[in-house]
Specification:
rod-shaped, 2 helices, plasmid, mainly alpha, about 55 residues
């Protein structure tokens, strides 16, 4: 494998890692929102509860 091919493979690996990290962050946000750990979602629920009562 020559230098150019190595560089191309390194770029592909970098892009895949970036996508994986991005997907992990999105999944963590969803889990936090569903479990109630997300402060923004928590505030939103409290605000909605005030309007309903």
């Amino acid at each position: 494998m020559d230098q150019f091919e190595m560089q191309e493979l390194e770029k592909l690996v970098f892009v895949q890692r970036a996508r994986l990290v991005s997907a992990e962050h999105a999944a963590q946000k969803k889990v936090a929102k569903v479990s109630g750990d997300c402060p923004i979602a928590s505030r939103r629920r409290k605000s909605n509860a005030r309007w309903k009562s």
